[in-house]
Amino acid sequence: MGLALAIHGGAGTIVRSKMTPELEREYRGGLEAGLVAGWDVLTQGGSSLEAVEAAVVSLEDFPLFNAGRGSVFTHEGRQEMDAAIMDGRNLKAGAVAFVRNIRNPIKLARLVMERSEHVLLAGDGANQFADALDVPTEPDEYFFTEHRWLQLQDAIAAGRVQLDHAAVRPVGTVGAVAFDRNGYLAAATSTGGMTNKKFGRVGDTPLVGAGTYADGTCAVSCTGHGEYFMLGVTAYDVAARMNYRRLRLEDAAEETVARLTEIGGDGGLIAVDTDGNVALPFNCEGMYRGWFTEGGQPHIEIYS
């Protein structure tokens, strides 16, 4: 049994031929920064909850991932962000949906867990809760990135709602899972959702059991086409297969992604268990991912 941490920066149509060496270096650098942020917390005796929050904050601050600063534009030309965090030690969770101008939505999600009697706050109410607790915000300009704006214009012109990673610059939802020295697990996920989304659409990320889950068995964070992760209750499905069928983490995670494929979904997930094992299955061309286990070396991968 040892420390373990895994992170992701989205899964989907990640084609090596469309990735320049410079852009790949940027993505790898963003993943490495998130991995180091979380691993430093774990190795200094911090909790798994603190580690996943630190990792996701780093990924939210990196403008090429679809979370926090790099969130995609809605049809109205603004960002509506979702995030969730869950503590496997006590089955506590906090989440926010379509919040605006929050610098780090994952921090707000943790405050929902620790400073309210609720699990999920959404929209204006979630922003009012953030104001009451003086949560750091940023102006619209902070969240403006040119490649996201161009994605929106392309999507509007084509009349489609598109996944964050379905464009030339393939990036996505971010997440982290961790196992700490005290034997506890935690998971965190954050996203800007879909380019050109309308009508207050919310995906799987802030829904406990769909895109984010942690208990005493495993911790899971998902990325991909959120509607299918909701239908498959995908994050919880990994834990259920381990608990009820006594499967190993790797087998449970692989079966869960196979089930996702059966119902028409694409994407992937990261998971850790109480033995410090890590699983990172996906059913698409690639998934931005990184992992670190005690006594091992850090790993950063993009393609299948």
Give a short synopsis of this structure:
The chain is 34% helix and 24% strand. With 304 residues, it is of the alpha+beta class. The longest helix has 23 residues, at 21-43.
Q: Over all CA atoms, what is the radius of gyration?
A: 17 Å
Number of strands: 12
Helix content: 25-40%
Domain unit count: 1
Estimated structural class: alpha+beta
Pattern of helices and strands? EHHEEHEHHEEEEHHHEEEE
Low-confidence stretches: 162-171
Helices and strands in order, then pairings?
Elements: E1 4-12, H1 21-43, H2 48-61, E2 81-87, E3 92-99, H3 105-115, E4 120-122, H4 123-132, H5 146-158, E5 174-179, E6 185-191, E7 212-214, E8 218-224, H6 226-231, H7 234-245, H8 249-262, E9 267-273, E10 278-279, E11 286-293, E12 299-303
Question: Could you walk me through the main structural features you see in this protein, from its secondary elements to its overall organization?
Answer:
The chain contains eight helices and twelve strands. The protein has 304 residues and is an alpha+beta fold. The chain has a single domain, classed as Glutamine Phosphoribosylpyrophosphate, subunit 1, domain 1 (4-Layer Sandwich), CATH 3.60.20.30. It has an eight-stranded mixed beta sheet with strand order 4-3-2-6-5-1-11-12. It has a four-stranded antiparallel beta sheet with strand order 7-8-9-10. Helix 1 runs antiparallel to helix 2, helix 2 packs antiparallel against helix 3 and helix 7 crosses helix 8. It is globular. The two termini are 28 Å apart. About 3% of the residues have low confidence.
